[in-house]
Amino acid sequence: MDLGIEGRTALVCAASKGLGKACAEALAAEGVNLVLTARTAETLEATAAELRSRYPVGIITAVGDIATEAGRATALAACPAPDILVNNAGGPPVGDWRTFSVEQWHAAVDGNMLAAIMLIRAVVDGMAERGFGRIVNITSAMVKQPNPALSLSVAARIGLTGFVKGIAPSYVGSNVTINSLLPEQFETDRLRSNIARMTSTSGSALDEAMAKAAKSGPAGRMGRVEEFGAVCAFYCSAHAGFITGQNVMLDGGRYPAVF
Ligand code: NAP
After folding, report:
1. What is the C-alpha separation between 133 and 148, in angstroms, rounded?
2. How far is the CA of 217 from the centre of ligand 1 (A)?
3. Cβ(65)–Cβ(40) under 8 Å?
């Protein structure tokens, strides 16, 4: 299926690795020009070079922490009027919620709620004026099925989710949609470090814990980042203009409820 977004421009945040990178790649495969962000210049440049070698699209990088105003200003200077915005940032630490400091709560809100809200605010009215916009937020399955060890993530992302549901209907009439993708157990560095922390393992014991985690869900495996990227690209496509304010679980069937 031609997604109808060739020649569009996407700002993809936190895109040097994992799910963000997979979204960037799936969009590049559709002919979308990219502005990619991450904090570590070396990894980000390596990802940009890798994607440039595979796809004939424009790819530029904007190094910075998307959880900060400075990082967002750098991203927006490189991409002031994106057609597509993929909001993403690193997840907060896992742990006993009683032990998190006020600073850690603020950091979670900055990274997993305010960063996305501020970027949406910066670009959404321009998208509406131009008559096309697709915003995808990478959140977490924890939004619908909270785990106490991920309380920082749950609380901050629920705030973003409520905000998005409130504003999304105002923009769909201008062909601008805002949806969230809710991953669980995609094989990335973040998942590996979370499982290491939760199981207190490393090395081969961590490999075993990863294999056990993979087998624990109905799919009997972890998600592949390419699967995530493809779904993101569809929600960014010309065909997805009648879907907005949704929270789409990508969890291999783990979520047990109907809604
Ligand atoms: P990952 O493999 O660790 O990749 C994280 C990417 O984000 C890297 O490119 C990293 O580069 C960049 N990044 C992190 N913090 C950033 C910041 N403040 N500003 C700019 N870039 C930043 O992680 P992932 O698994 O893809 O996870 C992506 C998001 O999905 C996270 O919020 C995670 O909590 C959430 N999630 C993932 C899963 C899963 O199954 N993998 C499940 C639920 C939720 P730098 O470090 O160089 O900045």
Report:
1. 35
2. 22
3. no
Cα–Cα distance for residue pair 73/61, rounded to 1 Å: 13
For 249, the token pair is 């679980």
- pTM metric for this prediction: 0.97
Q: How far is CA 247 from each of CA 72, 138, 182, 255, rounded to the nearest angstrom? A: 24, 10, 7, 13
Task: Write the pLDDT tens digit of every residue in 153-184.
Answer: 999 999 999 999 999 999 999 999 999 999 99
Question: What residues contact 218, with CB distance under 8 A and at least 6 apart?
Answer: 252, 253, 254
pLDDT digits (tens, 9 = 90+) for 82-113: 999 999 999 999 999 999 999 999 999 999 99
Q: What is the CA(174)–ligand 1 centre distance, in A?
A: 30
The answer to whether the CB of 171 is under 6 A from ligand 1 is no
